[in-house]
């Protein structure tokens, strides 16, 4: 009887401890995620206090809404296909081959993913504009420019996600097929591709998600002529003040994105467990690897072209060259385009990124510790599964939708945060939270629980066990997660565009305002500010890459 009572107490205590560990993240997500999202949903269905579900239907039947939804699906689908086609050869070359400067090339292809979207938009404007190197193609202001910007970002996702899977495949089946006379193409089609298919489909679904919810690239390169669901929510809110219509679109987007995340999770779970996963050492390239190396070089050129054009454009002053655009960053631009100088906006961005980083890291570490605890009962396993899905919810809501939700719900008692300095950092931390969690969870999952049990049997308490077993393994991923969160915060534009005040605007918001004001000085300042922001995020990402901690593939 006593033993049964002890087991029952233990079975209740462990789920309770799990919930206690996750209490702070649950409270934060409840206030700063569920409350804004529920307020957004309510704004779509309730108009002036009356339940009017027909308003959502009315928004969906608008001709412009149909065009916006179709453009979102078409552009995201096209960009996904191109990203996969360009990313697969690079994934093979960077994860299965060993050649000079391989790590440098891999880091260079990763940088675009964390570059601020508005910076990429400005870079492609400079590259494809009438006076740009590729202006003769006539792509400026067309869907081609938008798709190019989306591919620029998301080829890195394919490289990291598929490359990590490719790197762990056992090479012996492919070698055996080649020894039996199969051509390289036949080996890939019959042996390698079936093993990689879950990773490819999962990466493609994530890329489609990122493309469909892209904000800065579409807003900068498409304006109002080519609008996605994401930018349409912004325009309806800021320009037309049609909050019910914006809420209706947000609901549709939320449902679509959550469904896509569920499909991606199912595809990841469907990976064949019988496939041998043996980390393979990269080998020296052979003649048969030349096409993959050429494609990798081509992708590197496509990535470098807009960045190089941006840097050169920032140095052009009239018909000559100079640093006048950079010296003007301590001004407010021509015709008072800004309320604060760009240098002050950069300082605001750095302070905001520091706050967003410690918030997302604190929450992410607690979440990772909670969802990686070994389940010893059905109740504990159920609680852990629910918590894991709950903490990934921010990935299912776009940054612009989250910012919109903040705008309409956190502006009255008892939660009135309109003047809080932490409002923007909290929004950015929620955007970075899934990335932090997916960086830490695989590492904690890989720690043998028997080491913790051995430490506990020797008298170590939970804190001592954490310090002696988990921390030595976790410190590098923690640094990497901090770098990803910091870089993501520096470039975050979707939520911040709704929330940032003119006197406390971050650098991405200031850059967008500069390109929206006419004048050569304002445009030159936008180019220079974009370079400063790009260099800052690139330095952070090169430091993260040196830690060799995979993260994008885990999403």
Automatic annotation (TrEMBL):
The chain crosses the membrane at residues 68-92, 104-124, 144-163, 199-223, 243-264, 293-315, 356-373, 385-410, 422-444, 478-500, 520-544. It comes from the Bacteria. One of its GO terms (cellular component) is plasma membrane. SUPFAM superfamilies: MetI-like. It holds the Pfam family BPD_transp_1. It is found in: Cell inner membrane; Cell membrane. It is a multi-pass membrane protein. One of its GO terms (biological process) is transmembrane transport. Keywords: Cell inner membrane, Cell membrane, Membrane, Transmembrane, Transmembrane helix, Transport. Residues 69-264, 346-544 form the ABC transmembrane type-1 domain. Its main location: membrane. The keyword Transport applies. Belongs to the binding-protein-dependent transport system permease family. This is Thiamine transport system permease protein.
């Amino acid at each position: 009887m006593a033993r049964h009572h002890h087991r029952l107490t233990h079975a209740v205590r462990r789920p309770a401890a799990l919930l206690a560990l996750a209490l702070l993240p649950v409270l934060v997500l409840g206030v700063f995620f569920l409350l804004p999202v529920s307020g957004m949903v309510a704004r779509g269905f309730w108009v002036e206090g009356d339940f009017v579900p027909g308003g959502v239907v009315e928004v969906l039947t608008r001709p412009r809404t149909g065009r916006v939804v179709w453009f979102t699906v078409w552009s995201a689908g096209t960009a996904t296909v191109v990203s996969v086609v360009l990313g697969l050869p690079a994934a093979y070359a960077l994860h299965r081959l060993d050649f000079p400067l391989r790590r440098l090339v891999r880091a260079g292809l990763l940088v675009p993913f964390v570059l601020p979207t508005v910076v990429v938009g400005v870079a492609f404007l400079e590259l494809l504009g009438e006076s740009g190197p590729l202006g003769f193609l006539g792509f400026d202001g067309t869907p081609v420019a938008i798709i190019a910007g989306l591919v620029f970002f998301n080829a890195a996702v394919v490289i990291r996600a598929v490359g990590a899977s490719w790197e762990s495949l056992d090479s012996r089946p492919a070698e055996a097929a080649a020894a039996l006379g199969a051509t390289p193409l036949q080996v890939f089609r019959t042996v390698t591709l079936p093993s990689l298919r879950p990773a490819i489909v999962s990466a493609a679904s994530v890329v489609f998600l990122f493309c469909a919810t892209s904000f800065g690239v579409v807003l900068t390169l498409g304006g109002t002529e080519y609008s996605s669901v994401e930018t349409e929510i912004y325009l309806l809110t800021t320009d037309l003040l049609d909050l019910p219509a914006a809420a209706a679109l947000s609901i549709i987007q939320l449902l679509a994105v959550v469904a896509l995340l569920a499909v991606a999770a199912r595809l990841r779970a469907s990976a064949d467990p019988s496939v041998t996963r043996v980390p393979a050492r990269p080998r020296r390239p052979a003649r048969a690897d030349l096409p993959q190396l050429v494609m990798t070089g081509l992708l590197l050129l496509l990535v470098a072209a807009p960045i190089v054009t941006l840097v050169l454009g920032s140095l052009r002053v009239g018909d000559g060259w100079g640093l006048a655009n950079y010296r003007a960053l301590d001004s407010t631009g021509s015709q008072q385009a800004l309320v604060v100088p760009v240098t002050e906006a950069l300082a605001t961005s750095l302070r905001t990124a520091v706050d967003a980083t410690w918030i997302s890291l604190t929450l992410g570490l607690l979440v990772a510790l909670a969802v990686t605890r070994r389940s010893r009962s059905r109740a504990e396993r159920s609680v852990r599964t629910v918590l894991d899905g709950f903490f990934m919810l921010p990935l299912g809501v776009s940054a612009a939708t989250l910012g919109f939700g903040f705008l309409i719900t956190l502006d009255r008692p008892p939660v009135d945060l309109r003047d809080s300095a932490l409002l923007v950092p909290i929004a950015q931390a929620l955007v970075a939270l899934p990335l932090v969690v997916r960086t830490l969870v695989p590492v904690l999952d890989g720690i043998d629980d028997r080491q913790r049990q051995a430490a506990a049997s020797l008298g170590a308490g939970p804190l001592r066990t954490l310090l002696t077993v988990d921390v030595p393994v976790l410190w590098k991923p923690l640094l990497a997660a901090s770098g990803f969160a910091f870089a993501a915060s520096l470039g975050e534009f979707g939520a911040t565009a709704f929330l940032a005040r003119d006197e406390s605007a971050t650098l991405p918001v200031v850059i967008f305002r500069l390109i929206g004001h006419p004048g050569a000085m304002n445009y030159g300042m936008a180019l220079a500010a974009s370079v400063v922001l790009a260099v800052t995020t690139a330095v952070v990402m090169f430091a993260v890459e040196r830690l060799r901690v995979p993260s994008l593939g885990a999403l």
